[in-house]
Structure formats: C-alpha cells, structure tokens
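Technical appendix A lists one of the benchmark inputs used to test multi-chain prediction within the project. The record comprises two sequence entries:
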Amino acid sequence: MTTELSVSLWRGAQNGRYETYRVPQRSSQTVLDVVTFVQRHIDPTLSYRFACRVGVCGSCAMTVNGKPRWTCRTHVAKVAGRGKLEIGPLENLPVIKDLATDMQPFFEKWQRAKGAFAPTQTRNDPIAQIKPDTPSRKAADAAIECINCGVCYAACDTVRWNADYLGPAALTRAWTLLNDERDGGNIARLQAIAGTGGCHACHSHQSCQELCPQALNPTVAIAALKRRTAAAYLKGEIKV
Amino acid sequence: MNVRLYLWQRATAAVMAPLVLVHIAVIFYATRQGMSAADILSRTRDSFAWAAFYGLFVLAVSIHAAIGVRNILIEWTPLPERRVDACIVFFGLVLAVLGFRAVAAVVLW
C-alpha cells in the first residue's frame, strides 16, 4: 500500500491550474480529509467548502479524479488509483477560488423551477393528514432526500451544453412538490419547467442518477415531468 | 426544447416508426424481386396510396429532423435561439421540398 498520496489540487479561479502536494495516506481516509490536511499542514490559503463532514449538508462536493463526488463520504481507497488524486472544483459552475464554486446559478435555477413550497393552508389550519402509501406520496418520498450538493448538476452533459437548462436537482425538486398534495403551485410550476431549458431539454444520459450520492434518480423524475407537462399542455392548462 | 416541440418530435417519431418498417420491407421486396426502375415506376405512377404514404413520410421527417437539428445547434453552437429557429425552418423546408419533389417524381411522371 502506498504510504503517501500524490494530490493535485485546483488552485486559483477559472483560469487557475493544478498544483501537486504530497499527503500521507491513512486508513479510512476521505477525500475531504486529504483536502483538509493540505490546508492545515501545507498551504493555509487553500479555499474549499464543507460543514457537516457526515454527508448531510451537501456543501463539500468537488470533482475527484474526473467525477463529481461528495468528498466527506468518498473514501480515498475507493477512488485513488495508484495513490493519485486530482481534486478540482465542481464543473458547470463558476469557480470562486480553488475548490469553492459559486452555487448561485444552481440555486437560481431552483427558483426558476418553482422549487419553493406553495402552501394552501395557514398555520391556523389543522395539520394535513398525508397517507404515506399513496402513489403521489411515494413519488415525492423517492426524491425528497436531495441535499443540494450539486453533484448531479456538475455531472450533467446537458447543463454543460445548454446554459438555460434547469438541471437535474431543480427538476427533481419540482417533481417532489408536484407530488405533494399540500402544495398549490403546480400549474405555475409546470409552466416554468415546460419552456426553453425545462425538462424537455434532458437527453436521459443518466449521469445524475449514476453519481447522485443519495442514490436518487433524477432521470426518472424528469421523465415523469415530461409526461406531466405534455398532458397539461394538451389539456390547455399551460402555454409555451 | 419546449413542450410543444417535444410533442411534435414524439408525434412525428410515432408516425415514422411504422412507415420506416414498411419502407424497409418495400426495399427488400424490390431488390429481392430484381425489379428494375421501370418496374417500380410502373407501380408507383398515378398511385394515390404511394403518394400519401411517402408524402406523410416526408412531412414527418421534415418536422422531426428539423427539431433534432435545432437541439444540436442550440447545444453545440453559440448561435442565439432566434437565429437557430430561422435556420431550422429553412432546413425543414429544404427537406420538405426535396422530399416532395422525389415523391412527385415517382408518382406523377
């Protein structure tokens, strides 16, 4: 087993470059551990983003050996072929500095896809009784564990090619809310995702579902959105 | 792509699927029978059925291919959407004119 890792880290902003560091290899070491080691022991000016370190907050996603991954739950032993790691910022997002990307376009697309809950009741109404075994609730539950890490967005070819495309995370969020019977914003939501850059831009390459750290399947959600928007359009509920 | 173009592309694909199968079967039949161009033309000339079959085919192809090329242009070129739309309308019309000209050639003359 190699006792030292050769770690190339992206340094600088959009026009930066990779710099290589030597990091001791340890058992059960995560990619986030490696990045943290560099910052604490080699170069304190290294910028990166993390919070919980246990796969809940979704803030530590980076490109690891060419693939977007949540670094806090990615073991070095599983991804470092021949003791080498290349760690860069997430793709398809502007780089602020080093490994930190600007997530603003990602969350703006959540807004465009009407990813905010539109309540139909007030806090004074009785709590809605939602049966967990209805088809719509099951569909909502299947996609609700998204942690907004941006891995699917960085993995998506369509996002790379089409700047307007809302992306897998925003569309999966829209699908979750469409299936939430407490939500009242579905016509506006269908309208928002039926236009240019909406769900119909997806080519079903499925990189999103292959790399989603939560094992969600945005491709299924997007396919369902295509059917739902098509039906709404044919019924005249939405226009393009 | 928006939902309207999506529906047009899926609908034209659904139209084309059986037409392609019949078209391939016709090609196999014609080549296996050793039919000459004159033999084929004698059967297609003045045939409303073949004119309708290939006319529908040309129409579906022109719409379907134009929408597909639109997606490619939007994703692979820096052209603005309005210019892409102008390009694909032209492309679809060219396909339709060429296709209908070919249909007329085997049905009318």
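The longest helix of chain A spans residues 218-234. The beta strands of chain A are 4-11, 17-24, 61-64, 67-70, 84-88, 95-97, 100-101. Comparable benchmark entries are summarised in Table A2.
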